[in-house]
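fyi for ur records
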Amino acid sequence: MKSSEFITADLVQLPAMQPADWGNLVPRFEYFIASPHCHPIKISENGELIAIGTSIMHADTVWLACIVVHEGHRKKGLGNAITQDLIANIDRAKYKTIYLDATEYGYPVYAKLGFEVETTYTHMRSTGGAPVISFSEHIVPYEEHYLSQIYKVDAQVSGEDRSGVISDFVKSALLYVVDSQVQGFYIPGWGDGPIIAVSEAAGAALIKRRAMDETAAVVPTGNEFAIDCLQEHHFQFYRTSRRMVLGEKRPWHATGIYNRISGQLG
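which gave:
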């Protein structure tokens, strides 16, 4: 089956596609439709959405995101088809690296298409415990003069230039600043509420602050310090997913991710 552009009129069908633990797809696809950095597509049958997904373009890397097959249409090769179409629409000369975060269901599909596992993400949930009621004096609200430093911190950790997408959400950021230098940031309300930091002090403080807002967390399994911090705040492991790459591998630092942006962006 051929894919086509996902448009605003398709949003009403998203609840029928909704995976149980993914969060609401509607605001995500509203953003994908509006953003010049995204290319959402669909496969339909008799006017019904049966597969969806998007690509998200940064300066020279791409993430594939929200690849979902309708529960009533699985095991028909639709996951493979929508992923291949997303890849086919990418200029591989410009974007030599493609990432995604694979669920157990999607992993075999992506592996057959040549994606390789880079690492796993550890997914954790709060078990309750004493609420967080205070946080570091180094955590301050976003101000525009910090923007270039935020981009620098993110690039240092991610190995990507994600400034185009970050700029759409950065105004709600909370920053960890010491001597006028940004050491980390947390952006509430964007995806999974990312924390990116270049020091353990910043990462630990922002994890504590984020625990005031969120009951779930996702970090690279290799960031043992972050996992220990989350356990101190009564978060426990419940599953893993796989970060996968197709094409040119790039250096990045798992120890700088104290909560991923989302399955859409790492």
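The radius of gyration is 18 Å. thats all i got for now
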